[in-house]
TrEMBL record:
Organism domain of life: Bacteria
Protein name (Swiss-Prot/TrEMBL): CobW family GTP-binding protein
Similarity remark: Belongs to the SIMIBI class G3E GTPase family. ZNG1 subfamily.
Keyword annotations from UniProtKB, A to Z: Chaperone, Hydrolase, Nucleotide-binding
Amino acid sequence: MMLNSIYYYLVERVMNMGQRVPVTIISGYLGAGKTTLILHLLKCKEGKRVGIIVNDLAAVNVDEKMIQRSPDFSKADQLVALTHGSIGGQLQQQLIDQTYRLAASGTVDLILVESSGIVQPDMAAKAIARGTTTDGEKLATVCRLDTNVTVVDGFRVLHQFLPGDGAYNQDFTQSNQLIINQIEFCDVLLFNKTDLLTAEQQTYLEKFVRQLQPRAVFLETKFAIVPVSKVINTHLFDEKHELEAYDRSDDLSHFKEHHDLKFGIDSFVYRRRRPFNPMRFDAWLDQWPPAITRCKGVMWVITQPERVFTISQSGRAMDIIPSGYWIASMKDWEIKKIFTVRQNLRQIWDPRFGDRMIELVFIGQNMNRNKIIHDLDQCLMREDEVIDVRQDPFRLRHSNAHSK
Ligand SMILES: Nc1nc2c(ncn2[C@@H]2O[C@H](COP(=O)(O)OP(=O)(O)OP(=O)(O)O)[C@@H](O)[C@H]2O)c(=O)[nH]1
């Protein structure tokens, strides 16, 4: 049985030799569910070796950490994190070089590219379909752009696009335009977060999205769960139809301007080596500044010193979930063992608190950064504070996602 599987594995490898590696690009606005889709695809990869390229807007690549922590990310998979946010200029070249390196190495069977939520959707497609590496190699000789997937956050579309609920709100103008561009440029459209919509809203929104994008394969999803064959190796990308049509509809200077302005969107990282007082932090969540579009990262609360809490907010949806344990809460011999395999642990290890920290990335439009930082600092534990653990709101709710 074992020999049989090895035989078929080798036959498949030999047959695949010389074939170009298929690339799926995953686009979608901030918090739409792109990383959720990648994690789902890793779960269903059936022995395929996956190369993943992520690029996050903020200085701390939360998506990279999420994927690395996934039990489905195996040794045979490879993860490359691009730096500096949107795909444009230098970063576009970095994407081309890294994709070439992965595809030419012969060590991956497919490549997934997660583009940052605020980049024009054709940027990554142009890089993959037409790119030339710094050394002058044509990317198209080793890989082929297979599918452009756009993940749409149905809940956000509901609140931003429905008449009378934000459609005429100036604050939404730029992000609306970007979401529409992302919808218009794709082969497969995942209409995600349908669990947050009623059947009636879903029907209305499907018609709305269909008018913008009649050509793509349309799939309604919850937590981006789709059959793998719908987004990988579909052969749906048609360069002539998609890129050339897009080239005609807008000139490049327009895209550049959008990239440089980044839609007025800014980001910063809040990092502290002190835990939150969970009651004060919970009260702050009730006054969430609307300028924050997206927040993600990890949190340390004093009442549960062993637990890592993951925070993920996008628009009006907020999840705070216990997602594992701080390494510092493990036994000494376990910590020593982890140190031998995770070289970069030393860089984040604090002599007193180990890996415990609060590290939150905030992305938003016209955020009052100083006030947010000041208010969050007020939520930190004070030196002489005493706390009743029974009042911890995260302990009470932690078996479920914490929704605000
Ligand atoms: N209720 C609900 N939540 C979802 C669904 N899909 C994803 N989420 C949640 O939405 C949040 C954002 O998901 P991500 O996959 O991180 O979104 P993303 O597009 O990668 O975000 P960025 O990389 O910041 O642009 C997470 O808390 C997910 O668990 C869904 O179908 N329904």
